[in-house]
C-alpha cells in the first residue's frame, strides 16, 4: 500500500513538472524562429522589411536578434567585471524574452541584465537604475532577468552597426487569424528572406500531447471501471443512472481542463487513427527536429527551450515507468489477496 502511494506521489510530481515545462515551451515558442545561415541582416535590410510589412493589409510583427558570447561588462563603481552573452534585439523584446520586463524598442541607452550577472557586478539583484559599461558605452539597467543568467540584453540600431552588434535570428509573431499549420512562408517570400526555420512548434506540440497522456489514461481507467459497474447493474436503473452521470461528469471535467491542450496539438492529431503513414511521417519530423536542436549552436533562448524540452521527455518517461510499476504492484497485491482468500 505504501509503495503504491509513493509511486502515485512520484507520478503526480513528474506530471506537475511536465505541465510547467509545457507551459514554458508554449510561452517561449508562440513565435516562429528563423536563422540566417548566410550571415547577419544589415540595418538597411531590416528597415526595408519593416517598410514592406507596413504596406501589407495584415502586417506581421517580427523581431530580429542575435547573440555574441564571451563579452565583458563592467561595473565602474566597484571596478568589477563579468563575462556575459550579449543578446541584441531589433524589434519588440517580448517576441524573444518571455519575461514581463521593461525595455523600450528605441531605448539604446538601456539594457536588461541577468540575475547572476547582477550578483557578480553589484552583489545584489536590486540593480534597476544602476549603470554598467559595455563596449565603451554606459548603459542604464532597466530591469533584471530571472530565468536567464549571465546575459546582457540591449537594443540594436538599424541606422548604424554598434560595436558587437549581431543580428542573425528572427522571431515572427503569429497573429490571431493564423492557426497551427501556419509556417510563415508568405512572409518569407514577399520579403525575399532566405532563412531556415527552427522546429520549435513541433516540439511544443509533442510536449503538449505528452501532457495529455496521464489525464487521458486516468479517464480511460475511470471509463473501464464505470463500464464494468454498469454491466453489473443492468437490473438496477437508479445505479445505472448514477454511473452514467459520473461518467458524463468525468468527461466534462476532462474536456474543460484539457481542451486548450487539444487545440494546441491539432496539427499533430490525425484525422484517422488508423493512418499509420501519418505517424511514421510525424516520427520522422520529430526526429529531425530533435537532431536539429541538438546539433545547432544554441543561444541562451535556445538553451532555455531545449532544457525544458529535455526535462519534459524525462518526466514523460518517469510517468510511464511509474504507471507500469503501479499496475504491476496492484496486480501483485490482487494476486496475493486472492491467494490468501483461497487459503
UniProtKB/TrEMBL annotation:
Entry's transmembrane regions: 238-259
Highest taxon, organism lineage: Bacteria
Keyword Transmembrane appears in the UniProt entry: yes
Keywords (A to Z) from UniProt: Membrane, Transmembrane, Transmembrane helix
Identification of the protein by name: MacB-like periplasmic core domain-containing protein
Amino acid at each position: 500500500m505504501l509503495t503504491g502511494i509513493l509511486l502515485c506521489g512520484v507520478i503526480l510530481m513528474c506530471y506537475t513538472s511536465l505541465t510547467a515545462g509545457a507551459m514554458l515551451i508554449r510561452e517561449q515558442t508562440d513565435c516562429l524562429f528563423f536563422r540566417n545561415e548566410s550571415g547577419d541582416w544589415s540595418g538597411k535590410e531590416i528597415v526595408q522589411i519593416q517598410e514592406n510589412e507596413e504596406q501589407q493589409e495584415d502586417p506581421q510583427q517580427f523581431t530580429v536578434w542575435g547573440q555574441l558570447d564571451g563579452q565583458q561588462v563592467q561595473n565602474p563603481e566597484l571596478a568589477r567585471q563579468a563575462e556575459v552573452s550579449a543578446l541584441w534585439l531589433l524589434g519588440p523584446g517580448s517576441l524573444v524574452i518571455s519575461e514581463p520586463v521593461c525595455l523600450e524598442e528605441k531605448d539604446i541607452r538601456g539594457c536588461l541584465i541577468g540575475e547572476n550577472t547582477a550578483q557578480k557586478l553589484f552583489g545584489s539583484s536590486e540593480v534597476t537604475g544602476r549603470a554598467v559599461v559595455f563596449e565603451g558605452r554606459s548603459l542604464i539597467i532597466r530591469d533584471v532577468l530571472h530565468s536567464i543568467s549571465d546575459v546582457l540584453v540591449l537594443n540594436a540600431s538599424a541606422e548604424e552597426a554598434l560595436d558587437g552588434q549581431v543580428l542573425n535570428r528572427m522571431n515572427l509573431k503569429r497573429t490571431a487569424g493564423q492557426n497551427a499549420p501556419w509556417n510563415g512562408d508568405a512572409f518569407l517570400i514577399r520579403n525575399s528572406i532566405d532563412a531556415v526555420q527552427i522546429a520549435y512548434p513541433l516540439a511544443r506540440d509533442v510536449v503538449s500531447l505528452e501532457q495529455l497522456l496521464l489525464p487521458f489514461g486516468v479517464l480511460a481507467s475511470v471509463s473501464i471501471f464505470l463500464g464494468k459497474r454498469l454491466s453489473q447493474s443492468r437490473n438496477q436503473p437508479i445505479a445505472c443512472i448514477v454511473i452514467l452521470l459520473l461518467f458524463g461528469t468525468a468527461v466534462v471535467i476532462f474536456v474543460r481542463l484539457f481542451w486548450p491542450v487539444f487545440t494546441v496539438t491539432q496539427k499533430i492529431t490525425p484525422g484517422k487513427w488508423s493512418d499509420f503513414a501519418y505517424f511514421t511521417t510525424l516520427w520522422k519530423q520529430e526526429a529531425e527536429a530533435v537532431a536539429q536542436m541538438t546539433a545547432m549552436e544554441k543561444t541562451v533562448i535556445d538553451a532555455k527551450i531545449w532544457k525544458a524540452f529535455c526535462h519534459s521527455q524525462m518526466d514523460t518517461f518517469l510517468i510511464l515507468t511509474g504507471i507500469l510499476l503501479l499496475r504491476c504492484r496492484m496486480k501483485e497485491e490482487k494476486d496475493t489477496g486472492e491467494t490468501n482468500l483461497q487459503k
